Amino acid sequence: MDALTVTKRVSDLELDVPMERDVHLGRLTWFGIGGYASLLAKPRNVEQLIRIVRHCREVSVPLYVLGKGANLLVADGTLLGVVVTLDSPAFRHIQIDPDTARVTCGGGADLERVITSTVRQGFGGLEGLTGIPARIGGAIAMNCGGAFGEIGSYVESVTIVQDNGVTRTLGRDDIKFGYRRTDLPDGIITEATFQLSKADDQIKLRDKLLHVMKYKKNSQPMAARSAGCTFKNPPKMISEKGAGQLIDEAGLKGTRIGGAEVSHVHANFIEVHDGGTATDVMQLMDLVQRSVMGHCGIMLEREVVVWQNRH
Ligand SMILES: Cc1cc2nc3c(=O)[nH]c(=O)nc-3n(C[C@H](O)[C@H](O)[C@H](O)COP(=O)(O)OP(=O)(O)OC[C@H]3O[C@@H](n4cnc5c(N)ncnc54)[C@H](O)[C@@H]3O)c2cc1C
Predict the structure, then answer these.
(1) Are 77 and 41 contained in the same domain?
(2) Phi then psi dihedrals of residue 89, to 5 deg
(3) How many whole angstroms from 134 Cα to the centroid of ligand 1?
(4) CB-ligand 1 contact for 137 (6 Å cutoff)
C-alpha cells in the first residue's frame, strides 16, 4: 500500500470527517521529529469517530490514535494509515461532580488541566501526576505515573470505541492496570471518570502539587525534546536498579548518535537536538539496549511507543 491508496480508500468527502493529507506528524510529538502521516482525521464527535474506525477496518487501512505525542516516536518517512486526534471540544470536556468527588473527562482532555481544575476545587488524587504531559486517553493507555502513583488507581470507568467500531464502557473492576500498560481492548478511549477524594486541607494539596512538580524539574530534563523515560524499569526480581541507573552504570550518559543524545540529567531520557532524526533516536535506543545487555545482561524493554509502517 502507498499513500495514494490510503487517501483513495479513505475519502473525507465520503465519510464527512475533517481530514488533512500528508501531515508532518513528527512535529505533533514532544520529540518534534519524525515523518508524515498520509491522513490526519479530526472527528468532531463520537459519531464521526465511529464512522472512521469502521471504515478503516472495512478497507484495511491501519488506524492510529495520537494523544499529546509525549511518549511517541514517529519513524522517518510516511506512515501509511489514518491518524486520529481527539482535538475537538466534544472530546476535551472536564466535568467535576462535587457531590461524588468524581471527574469525567474526554479522551482528548489535557491531563494537566484536569489536575489543576480538580486541585483548585479541593479534590485530591491526581496531583501526583503533575508534570506528566498527556491527554487523558494517552495517560490511561500508558497507565502513566511514577514515584507519586499511577493514573489507573483513580479510574472509575473508561469508555472506548473498540476497533470494530462498537462503544463499550468498562468499570474499574473490568480493567487491569499494570506497569505502563492496561488490558483494555484495542480501540480509542473517548471518555474516563476518576474517583477522587475531598481534601481536608486544600493548602496541603497545593503544596503536594508544587512538591511533585519541583521533584520532576530537579530529576528530569523537562524542557528538552524527549519522550520521557525511554525504557521500562526491569521487574524487581530481575534487578532492583531502575533503567536509568543501569544505563548510567553502562557509562552511556552523553552518548550521541547524530542529533540524539542520552541525557546527562536522567540517563533514561533521550534528548533530541537540532537536526536530529527519528532514525538517530532509533539507533541510539538500539545502542543503549545492546550496551546495557553487554554490561549487566539485562535486556531493557522500550517504553516509548514507535509508530512505523506495519509490514
Ligand atoms: C518531559 C516528559 C516527562 C514525562 N514523565 C512521565 C512520567 O513521569 N511518568 C510517565 O508514565 N510518563 C511520563 N512521560 C511519558 C508520557 O507523558 C506518558 O506516557 C503519557 O501517558 C503519554 O500520553 P500522550 O497523550 O502524550 O500519549 P501519546 O504519546 O500521544 O501516545 C502514547 C500511546 O497512547 C495511545 N493513545 C493516545 N491516545 C489514546 C486514546 N485516546 N485512546 C487509546 N490510546 C491512546 C497512542 O496510540 C500510543 O500508543 C513523560 C514524557 C515527557 C516528554
Answers:
(1) yes
(2) -55, -30
(3) 5
(4) yes
Instruction: Return the half-sphere exposure (C-beta side, CA atoms, 13 A cut-off) of residue 191.
Output: 19
- Regarding whether 238 and 211 lie in a shared domain, the answer is no
Q: Do 108 and 171 have their domain in common?
A: yes
| Domains: count for the chain | 3
Whether residue 228 has its Cβ less than 6 Å from ligand 1: yes
Express each pLDDT in 116-174 by its tens digit: 999 999 999 999 999 999 999 999 999 999 999 999 999 999 999 999 999 999 999 99
Output the domain CATH number for residue 283.
3.90.78.10
Domain span at 271: 222-307
Let me know whether 125 and 213 are in one domain: yes
Ligand 1, atom nearest to 144 Cα: 11
| pTM confidence score | 0.96
Report the separation in Å between the CA atom of 294 and the middle of ligand 1, taken as the mean of its atom positions: 29
Q: What is the pLDDT of residues 211-258, one digit of tens each?
A: 999 999 999 999 999 999 999 999 999 999 999 999 999 999 999 999
Buried b (16+ CB within 10 A) or exposed e, 62-86: bbbbbbbbbbbbbbbebbbbbbbbb
Same domain, 32 and 106: no
Ligand 1 centroid to Cα of residue 307, in Å, is 13
Q: What distance in Å separates the CA atoms of residue 114 and residue 104, rounded to the nearest whole number?
A: 9
| CATH number of the domain encompassing residue 67 | 3.30.43.10
Determine whether 229 is an active site residue. yes
Q: Residue 32 and residue 277: Cα distance in Å, rounded?
A: 9
Calculate the alpha carbon distances from 158 to 83, 194, 268 in Å: 21, 9, 30
Question: In ligand 1, which atom is closest to the CA atom of 64?
Answer: 47
Judgement on whether residues 102 and 205 belong to the same structural domain of the protein: yes
Cα–Cα distance for residue pair 211/146, rounded to 1 Å: 14
79 and 40 assigned to the same domain: yes
Query: 96 near 126, Cβ under 8 Å?
Result: no
The residue out of 191, 218, 245 marking a domain boundary is 218
